[in-house]
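Let's study my pick:
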Amino acid sequence: QVQLVESGGGLVQAGGSLRLSCVVSGSIFSIYGMGWYRQAPGKQRELVAAITSIGATDYADFVKGRFTISRDNAKKTVYLQMNSLMPEDTAVYYCNRDILSVAFASWGQGTQVTVAS
């Protein structure tokens, strides 16, 4: 069974940075595209950034130029470097496959990111 474990969140002032990590176990990692998602209170989960199995990346418009997604296949880990954080980035961040229709069934617990103004 696939397990996703996110970490690295926390409380940061606006303009600050955080680096999130997601370790994937129980699956072949290198062949899958991966994505970071976030869900703010009262809002739907949304895709923030995605990276294909060969490292091509794509970003939601609201994080372009501020966030960077990367992966380490040897460590079965996907990262999200978040710079210039804004209060509207406050959410629980999750990782999963980059396409929701084929997402791993079990989501991780997520990691809370809170940006204070």
Q: What stands out?
A: The two ends are 40 Å apart (CA to CA). Residues 23 and 76 are 6 Å apart (CA to CA).
